[in-house]
Queue: 2 jobs
Job 1
Amino acid sequence: MKIIGENQVVTITYDLREENAEGELLERMNANYPFTFLFGTGALLPAFEAHLEGLTERDSFEFVLSPSEAY
């Protein structure tokens, strides 16, 4: 099973919500329109990548970024 690490192509699905898990839906990347990116190249927020690093295929994840970690 692949582990997310530097210079790997990663495809994820997620819901981005304001404030917390029950907050307003801001963005949804689902199986029909997943988010695919090259991990570890500095193109994404460092905190976002830090939460994904080490996950394996089919792992679920949930995390909150503070305003200082976001755009």
Note: The CA atoms of residues 31 and 59 lie 15 Å apart.
Job 2
Amino acid sequence: PVCVVSGGRRWHGVAEAVALMQELERLGVPERVMLPELRSLSTCENARGVRDVLAPLGAKRVGVVTCDWHARRALACFRAAGFEAESIPAPSPRLPLVRRARRAAGERVSYWLDRVATWGWAA
């Protein structure tokens, strides 16, 4: 098995994928099974970047690890990229109602923007 760690967005000079790989290694995931994807800046770009990393391996089935509140949109992006994708949701801490509502609204807007950008209006 391989673990593609995706995310090119930088926080304090460190790419998301690099920070995640360091944490996975700290938790016992062997470095030899991790493959970085360092160019993506959005969920749909994550999916396309992972597709590019996995293409030489012929992988079509993936488990997508992301926040529980983000799983629906992430799965849609990975499926649009050609994967048979399964959700592996990471539980999020409980937030106050206003923050949960704001997050849900942002996800809805992003979901529809992803649909338009990736699949067109007819999808």
Note: The mean pLDDT is 88.
